[in-house]
Amino acid sequence: MRSEERMEAEQSLLERCDLWACIQCGKCTGGCPMSFKTELNIRRLIYQALLDGDVNADGMDELWDCTACGTCVLRCPKEVGPSDLIVALRTTLVDGGVIPPTIRDALTSVFRHGNPSLMPPDERADWAEGLG
């Protein structure tokens, strides 16, 4: 492992995602298009990280609901980058071998076929036949 990677591994989640600047205003969650449809609450995740120094991502299926649209980043008055926390938590899950089947299948299909539709490249537009 390179020394740069080792230093990053030793940094806490708070340091890697620069969460110390968060003022808990709630603009990230208030603007998140997914927070109204799922259990995803980025403000709560940041608050938990600030209190505990880390977040245990086990069993947090809502992390996969984030579309990485960047609304939370745009709305943050302190430029914290809340989506970095979600990406870091997802990375932890993936590194531990925990991936929901739908995500796993889509990623496998992208690797094998170049698209998430589970179809070979020459068949991936077949669904649009007859639509005009």
Low-confidence stretches: none
How many strands, which pairing sense, and closed or not: the largest β-sheet? none
Mean pLDDT: 86
Structural class: mainly alpha
Helices and strands, in N-to-C order? HHHHHHH
Number of strands: 0
Please give the share of residues in helix: 40-55%
Counting H and I runs of at least 4 residues, what is the number of helices?
7
Shape assignment = elongated
C-alpha end-to-end distance: 53 Å
Q: Beta-sheet strand percentage?
A: under 5%
Specify Rg, calculated over alpha carbons.
Answer: 18 Å
Outline the structure in words.
The protein is 45% helix and 0% strand. With 132 residues, the protein is mainly alpha-helical. The mean pLDDT is 86. The protein is built from seven helices and no strands. α4 crosses α6.
Brief overview, please?
The chain is an all-alpha fold and 132 residues long.
Give a topology summary.
Elements: H1 3-10, H2 13-16, H3 27-31, H4 42-52, H5 71-75, H6 82-95, H7 101-113
Features:
132 residues; mainly alpha; 7 helices; 45% helix; elongated
